From TrEMBL:
<keyword id="KW-0575">Peroxidase</keyword>
<dbReference type="GO" id="GO:0004601">
    <property type="term" value="F:peroxidase activity"/>
</dbReference>
<protein>
    <submittedName>
        <fullName>Putative peroxidase-related enzyme</fullName>
    </submittedName>
</protein>
<dbReference type="InterPro" id="IPR029032">
    <property type="entry name" value="AhpD-like"/>
</dbReference>
<keyword id="KW-0560">Oxidoreductase</keyword>
Amino acid sequence: MQRYTLTDYEDASPATRSVYDDFMRTTGATEVPIWLQSLGHSEALARAYWERAKGTLFSGNLPLPLKEMIVFIVSARHGARYCSACHAQNVLSLDKALAFADLQSFLASDSACMLPRCYQNVVRFASKVVADANGLEDEDFEELMEEGFTREEICEIIAVIDMATMFNVYTSSLRLDLDPQYRAIL
């Protein structure tokens, strides 16, 4: 059963088109992704989801490649096929030192050693949050601070994890099909 309908650009209301336009302008995309088209029936929902993603990913102090890696890791831990594929592609487009096989290897072995050093502790932290946010210890925060992250940046890391979780629930519940440019990693 198809659990969603898509609203393409031509059929979208003017208000929804403005959300689509903002997405494409901000991301440099030439097409509206399936996740956003699946919200296109409601300008309010499309705007809310897009504003959450835009505010979390495209502002703040953390570099975008690190944020994309966090979303990828969280999505993979949740088994979110759509988000893990999308953000694997984003990680690879932003960090040319990594290859698709590196991400597959990481997921298979759970070894962060092939990731850039600054990613390693963040990946461990994000994995702990996904497993049990209530189980975090002060030491988990101290480890990130020793790596050079401020308290504000740690809050930003948590906000990225939270945003990813929200999108994971949405895309997985609907079983969104992958956009043509995404390659399934799970």
